[in-house]
Amino acid sequence: MQFTRAITLSLTCSLGLSLFNCQKAEEEKTQAATSTAAVAPENLVSTDTIPSKMVYIPGGIFKMGSGEQNFPDSQPIHEVEVNGFWMDEHEVTNAEFAQFVAATGYKTVAERTPNAADFPGVPEEYLVAGSGVFTPTATAVPLDNVLQWWKYVPGASWKNPKGPSSSLDGQQNKPVVHVSYVDAAAYAKWAGKRLPTEAEWEFAAQGGKGRRNYYWGDELTPDGKWMANIYQGNFPDKNTGADGFIGAAPVKSFPANGYGLYDMDGNVWEWCNDFYRPDYYAQSPKKNPQGPTDSFDPEEPSVVKRVQRGGSFLCSDQYCIRYKPGSRGKGEVSSASDNLGFRCVKDAPAPKS
């Protein structure tokens, strides 16, 4: 289960309410360049040493989904055809997002103080800007309550990932986090791009190699090497960092796939444009599926959710195994956390040979 801003806020104020039910549908339609309240940190304005490139992904037919019992919403495996498209070679970085903020004055959802009118009955002292931060537990705990390791931290945002006392010093080339779907869509529009469809994302993640146990192959650690930034050790109290990182890693820290794309597995979750429905694969069109026309999650029927893909640095075979091929994540459109980012795609002609 992913962190959700509203549930954590509601439990914090002990009201027993699902604040999701109070979210305005208009929030999803938020556009870039409408807020002037945010500015980019000075140390990020022009310091990106790994500017993103876009890689052309040729169109083709592939098998989409997963046959694993743990992923019923990724079934049935079905044949899909996608047209060619361009995709960011890595996740959008802090430096790149800072350029967007500097150009537009955009303020992310995590930076906005919740409007009391949108949350009737919730005391104003609990309506503070912030976001979800993974906080390891002191000892091993049962894995049945995500609020043991997810904390709503006032002041946490893309530029203060762990809270007000943290900064982005030395993190220019890490993926931007604490980005909701609303924010990711705003960035994509500003950049002249869009968010990928779920089918495009999975086709690209396979790297032209087809369905395998892992996106990179059939072994978790070929020749003893970690191929993605995921969790090693005992979740959620002890991450050994055997892959070299605890938390998000700088982009391009692990090998690229067959298409030249980095971090399609692990590191941070990535937003897709599709609404989430667990039953969509049974009715998905074969050619260029765009996702269902509306959202439905039987666990939270009134909540608007979009698909997330790829897993994060918190995924492992012990917990959150949805870093594995074909699996799907989901998230409420205005919620964010410190393991959630995105990358963009673009429709343009194939490169000339």
From TrEMBL:
Segments forming domain Sulfatase-modifying factor enzyme-like: 53-346
GO molecular function annotations of the record: formylglycine-generating oxidase activity
One Pfam family of this chain: FGE-sulfatase
SUPFAM superfamilies to which the protein is assigned, alphabetical: C-type lectin-like
Record InterPro entries: CTDL_fold (IPR016187), Sulfatase_Mod_Factor_Kinase (IPR051043), SUMF_dom (IPR005532), SUMF_sf (IPR042095)
Domain of life: Bacteria
PANTHER family: FORMYLGLYCINE-GENERATING ENZYME, SULFATASE MODIFYING FACTOR 1, 2
Record-given protein name: Sulfatase-modifying factor protein
